[in-house]
Amino acid sequence: MSAADLNSPSGDPLQRGVVAAHASIKAEPSTPKVAHAARRPIRPPTRLERIEAWLTRLSIRNNFWHKVFSLVWLPYAFRSGIRLHGFTRGLSAERFAAILPFRRFNRNFYDAMAGAALLGNSEVAAGMYLFSVCGDDYTVVCKEMKYRFLRPCLGPAIYRVVKSQDVEDKVAAGGEFNVALELEVSQQQLMKKGEEPLVGRCDITFHCTPKTMVRERSDRRRARHEKRAASARAIEGESS
Q1: Which residues are bridge partners to 198 per DSSP?
Q2: Cα separations in angstroms, 52 against 45, 57, 58, 134
């Protein structure tokens, strides 16, 4: 059967209905595409923010600069004397270690390492490991920490990261994220070359936020405050 027979009024009613439905589908206008909102351009960092990033990089360069910055911002870590190894950015967790010396400031009254020293420096060691991976692009905040004491520590303590939750992949993906780390704390053997006894385990969770995201949120809050202040001034002007 030809197309002329289908379009003729004398054709089969069922066939005429099919042709009419097909023509109506063709005549329907296409759905317009929804335009996505344009993303606000990221402003360049200010001079103060660039100085802050430079100081962050300097603080993880070596133990000397770490000690200098600890004197100002982390006086507890400065007095405890914790020494960190693995400042190179992107260093694997297996090669990272921190040593807490067995000095009087870190000991308790029965001449063992104080629990507060072991617990507090766990956050310092884990945070410096994250800084060595994330660099100066992220702010790192401790969210949750759990420490389990296994035995007394009668010598210098060594902190090692034994489990890291794919920190490198999360940094490469971008955005803010939570990362869970597991640390093992061992007693360093100074005289013998035997196995280092395990004195504690620490499970710690950090929240990492890109500094660009922090700046965007700060700019939005500032814009809201300025808008509210302008509205309040306008209302006061109308009432007066």
Answers
A1: 186
A2: 10, 9, 10, 15
**What pLDDT sits at residue 38?**
42
In single-letter form, the type of residue at position 106 comes to: N
- Identity of the amino acid at 72: V
CATH 3.40.50.800 for the 47-218 domain, yes or no: no
Sign of CA pseudo-dihedral 96, 102, 106, 107: positive
Phi then psi for 74, rounded to 5 degrees? -135, 70
Cβ-based neighbours of 96, under 8 Å, separated by 6 or more: 85, 86, 129, 132, 160, 161
This prediction has a pTM of 0.69
Q: How far apart are CA 33 and CA 240, in angstroms?
A: 49
Which residue's entry shows tokens 């759990």? 146
